[in-house]
Write a structure and sequence with these properties.
132 residues, 2 domains, two-stranded antiparallel sheet, two-stranded antiparallel ribbon, 6% strand
């Protein structure tokens, strides 16, 4: 169950583009330059000498992420099925906190069957459901 939780957290944080928790970082982009042929996602040098990391197509915009967090905050779940999930969501700062195994388990297995229509979520969650 902990492996599944870690996998879900990594995918969720990467898609939601959570600062300091996403796996889409500078080192990953440098590796992608070497291993993949994705010119649109490679780091681009700027005039001041710093590297610019273009927004990935699989990550949500802040507006879309806020909508997802608002949806999770307003989600009504019966007692006994992670009914305290709304308390774990902070829609203003865009964070999930204090999620132990049970709410995480319910979120992983019931989120794909809900009516959340976003191409990157549909793709990542279908991959997750296929793996586990």
């Amino acid at each position: 169950m902990h492996i599944e939780k870690n996998f879900f957290d990594n995918v969720f944080n990467t898609v939601m583009d959570v600062k300091d928790r996403t796996k889409d970082n500078v080192k990953a982009r440098q590796d992608m330059e070497i291993l993949c042929n994705r010119k649109e996602l490679e780091l681009k040098p700027q005039l001041n000498g710093k590297l610019f990391k273009p927004k990935a197509y699989f990550s949500l915009t802040p507006k879309e992420a806020k909508a997802v967090y608002g949806w999770l905050k307003g989600l009504r779940i019966p007692d006994g099925h992670s009914s305290n999930l709304a308390r774990c969501v902070d829609a203003n700062t865009g964070k999930l906190h204090g999620m132990c195994c049970t709410p995480n388990f319910d979120l992983r297995y019931h989120l794909p069957s809900t009516s959340l229509h976003c191409k990157c979520f549909d793709l990542s969650l279908s991959i997750f459901k296929a793996v586990f």
